[in-house]
UniProtKB/TrEMBL annotation:
Record protein name field: Guanine nucleotide-binding protein alpha-4 subunit
PROSITE patterns, A to Z: G_ALPHA
Organism field: Somion occarium
Keyword tRNA-binding: no
Pfam families from the UniProt entry: G-alpha
Length: 524
């Protein structure tokens, strides 16, 4: 070996290599220059070694994660994916959801402020409806529903986008009743104005200032880890006592930036969340007005006539307004399961699960289901072991926020067709949740006819079993038509807000996903 009189450089210099020639120190290099060069080279080597080490770690993690189970939750917006994710979290990493309890107040308060505004707007638009006797608009139905792969229901009445304000008012009132009614309404509006004003601040808090165009009724989208904005100093990522992990996908840096920015401004040194405490006191002071509005005969009439259609979560929180608006309110698990906030992008949740004496790491991907979010799913298809596809069977009388001409069941069927026929997903274990069965039951009890929205349903009975079987047959047919690999479709009727029932379904589904995973691993 040739020893150089000077300390070796980090670069090995080959006399024939033109790059080495450039890097070679000048023969006239002074001692001071030499020291500087050596210091810089040592620093460069340190950085380079750190990068190598990081790359090695990433490679190891990637190799190991190849052995993990990857489960995608897919389905249209509002189908229940994030709610199902919360049920997984409750089952396999319960303390993490417990730690988030307080941060859910922002969502729940938003889930109250927004419907209160919609009720007032509907009252403005329709007045004290007592005239037309008719219920909601009628729809033309496309008989193509019988062929799900091309199924499409035709447009509802022009101008409708789920917002009653966009429909024309046809209120006719006796003048004296009208003035009483208007006085009442004006009074309520005044009393509720602080809450209405708070809506925008809540939206800003939840979205971190990100405005997503095409979000339909003006709903707020959140990125994974939004809870960090309200967690009063607790971290939502990293390991915790139970070994469960929660990680962010793709958007970590912007989330962390906004989290600390907002945290500094809005959390007092005593740990009080200024904005949320302020809104809690507004709610407390107008709790009776909200109840009065919610129970008002005019509002009941608008709901009965279906001029005002509130989503299940809005009804849930307005029904529970006394409890939720009380002082010192802390959300219950049931409240958290009912809270609604739209997912943006893909959120990855990681936890360990022990099945048949083996502990395996699971990656659960909860995706945003709105049309504008669906392109973000594709990078996750390559690696997926299993999919749970959620289709809300209660949605037969609803239309997409993103496209008010598309019936939600149609959209679900079309999306399911895309998933079943996707080449990247051909070998993936496939589970179908026909979800929101409790909401379906409720709609049928209220006499909301399936036939009115889906003519092909015809005169079949307005009974739960018949309706569910009808929808199930359509999904099964889609699967059969796109099933060269003869894969099994596991179907469950679910209401994912029901913790007890969902727990047993999750256990059952996890078990079958794991068996398939082991079988595949044995073949590799
Ligand atoms: N009653 C009832 N409500 C449900 C059920 N499943 C979901 N929900 C509610 O429906 C709303 C929407 O559910 P999410 O889980 O947020 O829907 P998502 O599929 O994640 O929606 P995106 O994030 O927009 O794609 C929430 O308020 C849930 O509480 C169910 O089976 N029954
Ligand atoms: Mg979601």
């Amino acid at each position: 070996m040739i020893r150089t009189p000077k300390p070796p450089s980090v670069h090995s210099l080959d006399v024939n290599d033109p790059l080495s020639a450039i890097l070679r120190p000048s023969p006239t290099e002074s001692e001071q220059d030499r020291q500087t060069r050596l210091r810089l080279e040592a620093e460069a080597k340190r950085v380079s070694d750190r990068i190598d080490e990081q790359l090695n770690q990433d490679r190891e993690r990637f190799k190991k994660s190849k052995q993990d189970v990857k489960l995608l939750l897919l389905g249209q917006a509002e189908s229940g994916k994030s709610t199902l994710q919360k049920q997984f979290q409750l089952l396999y990493n319960p303390t993490s959801l417990d730690e988030e309890r307080l941060s859910w107040r922002a969502v729940i308060y938003y889930n109250i402020a927004r419907p209160v505004r919609r009720i007032l707007d509907a009252l403005d638009a329709y007045g004290d409806l007592d005239d037309d006797g008719g219920d909601d608009f009628s729809l033309e139905i496309d008989s193509k529903f019988g062929t799900p792969s091309t199924a499409r229901l035709s447009s509802p009445s022009p101008g409708f986008n789920g917002n009653p304000l966009e429909q024309t008012s046809s209120s006719i009132l006796a003048p004296s009743i009208k003035s009483d009614y208007e006085a009442q309404l004006t009074h309520l509006r005044d009393r509720l104005s602080p809450l209405l004003n708070a809506e925008a601040s809540l939206a800003e808090r939840l979205s971190g200032g990100v405005d997503v165009s095409g979000s339909g009724k003006g709903n707020v989208f959140v990125r994974s880890g939004w809870q960090a904005r309200s967690l009063l100093g607790k971290s939502t990522k990293g390991h915790n006592d139970t070994g469960g992990r929660f990680s962010f996908t793709g958007q970590r840096s912007s989330l962390e930036n906004s989290s600390s920015r907002m945290g500094n401004r809005e959390i007092t040194p005593e740990g009080h969340d200024v904005l949320i405490e302020e809104i809690a006191s507004i709610l407390l002071s107008c709790k009776d007005d909200i109840r009065e509005l919610w129970e008002h005969a005019a509002v009941r009439r608008l709901r009965d006539r279906r001029k005002l259609r509130l989503e299940e979560w809005a009804e849930f929180f307005l029904d529970n307004i006394d409890r939720v608006a009380s002082s010192g309110y802390i959300p219950t698990m049931d409240d958290i399961l009912h809270a609604r906030i739209q997912t943006m992008g893909v959120a990855e949740h990681i936890f360990d699960m022990s099945v048949h004496g083996r502990t395996v790491t699971w990656h659960l991907y909860d995706v945003g289901g709105a049309r504008g979010q669906r392109h973000t799913w594709i990078p996750y298809f390559d690696d997926a072991n299993a999919i749970i596809f959620l289709a809300p069977v209660s949605a037969y009388d609803q239309y997409l926020d993103e496209d008010p001409r598309t019936n939600r069941i149609d959209d679900s069927l079309q999306l399911f067709t895309d998933i079943c026929s996707n080449q990247l997903l051909k070998k993936v274990h496939l589970v179908l949740f026909l979800n929101k069965t409790d909401v379906l039951q409720n709609k049928l009890e209220r006499g909301i006819k399936v036939k009115k929205y889906i003519t092909s349903y015809g005169d079949r009975p307005m009974e739960f079993e018949a309706v569910v079987n009808y929808f199930k047959a359509h999904f099964t047919q889609v699967h059969k038509r796109n099933n060269e690999n003869k894969r099994v479709l596991y179907t469950h009727l679910t209401s994912v807000v029901d913790t007890k029932a969902t727990k047993s379904i999750i256990t059952n589904v996890s078990d079958s996903i794991f068996r398939k995973y082991l079988a595949d691993a044995a073949l590799v």
